[in-house]
């Protein structure tokens, strides 16, 4: 690792953050869909959905937060794709700059941008009546899970960002990720689903992550859900990181 | 340092294939310090591949290449300290201003006082007034000037320009030529690729023609001319080229151009 790795990563992170500050529409378009889902489900469908909890928005928020991240990482792939296409990626790679800094700066930018989007969505949920009695440590645990989830999805996003031929191709991978929460406990309890759907829903990563965050918000015991959730996040993170790094090495050598 | 005596670029037997396609089939070339060397070839001749290998973006399959005395395969970090690459497409950050682009590169080259480096280059490339504007608002010529200015941050001794004037209008093209000549006058070695014969003729001290993965000719313009049959003397009325007409009408500075309507009864 180069002695300039940290300094160069900081410089390049500053560059991408400036991009976000100058085009805040990337944050707005990221949060529009999750907020629209939240409005639709709370004020249109919510009345007919029996979750057994007092407030549907409180029940819904964990899944909406995951949709926010899935929607946000499309921009991670997009920003990386634009750097590849515009030639600035090659310029950085031909300079005496720590080479992996270029990638890490994008990953950290993705984290910052998604945390901002998540904060916006939580604020809107609060306006819609979301309430939590969770203490500081529970909120930190929620933040930790969401950071891990964002990093896992970000490393997935790096792969199309490096390999896509078109802008649409760079962001299309995020659509299935956005819809995965619909086949989970995010919107309705899995108990009402027919057999095969229920089996899928109960064993895919979103359900355990949603259940863990929901329990933390409600100050209830998290049980084994949190460990399954963390294992899923860590597993996806490691696999996506290895694949992304392999793709990256093939692109630069 | 022993690097001062070595040629700026020395390439021997360079080969590179993409799967079945043999792009470079044994390229040899030597570029003297402070000279302008043009690598001439049609599209797909392998010019960009050669430049990418020399700028450490690609690994060669066989052969050696030394830039500023350093081996591109084993001393890539030293090579990157010695070079700048200006790729085929102006590699500027469109969302940043011109000045921010230059400061960014200066920081990434770990220079002291990046702000001053940026201001000096803006001044040198007549971009001081535009320095505070986003690069996305620049014209093609300004963008290319900023691109080349970014390559000069830190005064690297060797500069690669990959098709620097492709897609530029005639005036911007002449601006780039002027810049390249000034660079060489300051002692920078320039290797440029081009598919325009007149560009090589205008700029280069030495010209090599890359064809089907090999250098088929390498020499000065005078040497290349000697390869052809001796010139015949003929009397031909010299018509102005469209480029000359265009430049005469627009004016060299481009500022005072006013409409001239050509009569239809001529």
Beta-strand share of residues of chain A: under 5%
Q: Strand order, biggest sheet of chain B? A: 6-7-8-3-9-10
Mean pLDDT of chain A: 90
Number of helical regions of chain B: 9
- Which radius of gyration of chain B do the C-alpha atoms yield? 20 Å
Distance between the termini of chain B: 68 Å
Most extensive chain interface and residues per partner: A-B, 24 and 30 residues
Q: Which structural class best describes the helix and strand composition of chain A?
A: mainly alpha
Number of domains of chain A: 1
Q: In sequence order, what are the helices and strands of chain A, one letter per element?
A: HHHHHHHHHHH
Radius of gyration of chain A: 19 Å
Sheet with most strands of chain B: 6 strands, mixed
Mean pLDDT of chain B equals 86
Domain ABC transmembrane type-2 (chain A): 25-251
Main location (chain A): membrane
Keywords (chain A): Antibiotic resistance, Cell membrane, Membrane, Transmembrane, Transmembrane helix, Transport
InterPro entries (chain A): ABC2_TM, ABC2_TM_bact-type, ABC_2_transport, Nod_factor_ABC_transporter
Protein described:
The complex is a heterodimer of chains A (253) and B (266). Chain A starts with a helix and ends with a helix. Chain A has 253 residues and is mainly α. In chain A, helix 1 (5-22) packs across helix 5 and helix 2 runs antiparallel to helix 3 (56-86). Chain A has helices at 5-22, 25-45, 56-86, 88-93, 101-127, 136-163, 167-172, 174-179, 195-203, 205-217, 225-252. In chain A, 76% of the residues lie in helices and 0% in strands. Chain A has one domain (5-188, 196-252). Chain B has 266 residues and is an alpha/beta fold. In chain B, strand 9 and strand 10 (214-219) form a beta hairpin. Chain B has helices at residues 47-54, 76-82, 98-108, 114-124, 140-152, 170-185, 197-203, 221-226, 242-250; strands at 9-18, 21-31, 36-40, 62-67, 70-71, 83-86, 158-162, 189-194, 206-211, 214-219. Chain B contains 9 helices and 10 strands. Chain B has a 6-stranded mixed β-sheet, sandwiched between helices. Classes of the chains: A mainly alpha (253), B alpha/beta (266). Chains A and B meet through helix 1 and helix 4 of A and helix 2, strand 6 and helix 3 of B.
């Amino acid at each position: 690792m180069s002695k300039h790795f940290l300094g160069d990563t900081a410089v390049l992170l500053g560059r991408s953050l400036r991009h976000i500050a100058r085009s805040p529409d990337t944050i707005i378009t990221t949060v529009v869909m999750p907020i629209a889902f939240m409005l639709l489900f709370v004020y249109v469908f919510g009345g007919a959905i029996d979750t057994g909890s007092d407030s549907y928005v409180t029940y819904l928020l964990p899944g909406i937060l995951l949709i926010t991240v899935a929607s946000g990482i499309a921009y991670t792939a997009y920003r990386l794709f634009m750097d590849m296409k515009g030639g600035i990626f090659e310029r950085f790679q031909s300079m005496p700059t720590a080479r992996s800094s270029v990638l890490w700066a994008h990953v950290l930018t993705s984290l910052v941008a998604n945390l901002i989007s998540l904060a916006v969505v939580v604020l809107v949920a609060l306006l819609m009546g979301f309430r939590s009695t969770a203490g500081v440590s529970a909120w930190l645990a929620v933040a930790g899970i969401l950071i891990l989830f964002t990093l896992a999805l970000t490393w997935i996003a790096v792969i199309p960002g490096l390999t896509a031929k078109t802008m649409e191709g760079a962001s299309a991978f995020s659509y299935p990720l956005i819809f995965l929460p619909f086949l989970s406990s995010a919107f309705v309890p899995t108990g009402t689903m027919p057999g095969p759907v229920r089996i899928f829903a109960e064993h895919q990563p979103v359900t355990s992550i949603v259940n863990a965050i929901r329990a933390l918000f409600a100050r209830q015991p998290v049980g084994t859900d949190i460990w399954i959730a963390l294992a899923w996040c860590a597993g996806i993170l490691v696999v996506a990181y290895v694949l992304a790094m392999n793709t990256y090495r093939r692109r630069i050598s | 340092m022993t690097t001062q005596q070595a040629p700026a670029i020395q390439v021997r037997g360079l080969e590179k294939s993409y799967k079945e396609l043999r792009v470079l089939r044994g390229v040899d070339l030597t570029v003297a310090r402070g000279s302008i060397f043009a690598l001439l070839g049609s599209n797909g001749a392998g010019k960009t591949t050669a430049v990418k290998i020399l700028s450490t973006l690609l690994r060669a399959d066989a052969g050696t290449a030394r830039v500023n005395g350093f081996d591109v395969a084993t001393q890539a970090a030293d090579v990157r300290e010695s070079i700048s690459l200006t790729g085929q497409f102006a590699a500027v950050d469109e969302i940043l201003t011109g000045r921010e682009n230059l400061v960014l590169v200066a920081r990434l080259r770990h220079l002291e006082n990046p702000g001053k480096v940026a201001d000096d280059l803006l001044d040198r490339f007549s971009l001081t007034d535009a320095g505070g504007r986003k690069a996305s608002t620049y014209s093609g010529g300004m963008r290319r000037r900023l691109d080349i200015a970014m390559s000069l941050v830190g005064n690297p001794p060797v500069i690669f320009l990959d098709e620097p004037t492709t897609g530029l209008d005639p005036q911007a093209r002449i601006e780039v030529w002027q810049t390249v000549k000034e660079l060489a006058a300051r002692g920078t070695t320039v290797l440029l690729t081009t598919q325009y014969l007149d560009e090589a003729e205008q700029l280069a001290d030495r010209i090599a023609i890359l064809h089907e993965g090999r250098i088929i000719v390498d020499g000065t313009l005078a040497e290349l001319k000697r390869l052809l049959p001796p010139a015949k003397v003929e009397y031909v009325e010299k018509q102005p080229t469209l480029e000359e007409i265009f430049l005469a009408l627009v004016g060299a500075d481009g500022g005072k151009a006013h409409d001239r309507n050509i009569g239809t009864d001529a």
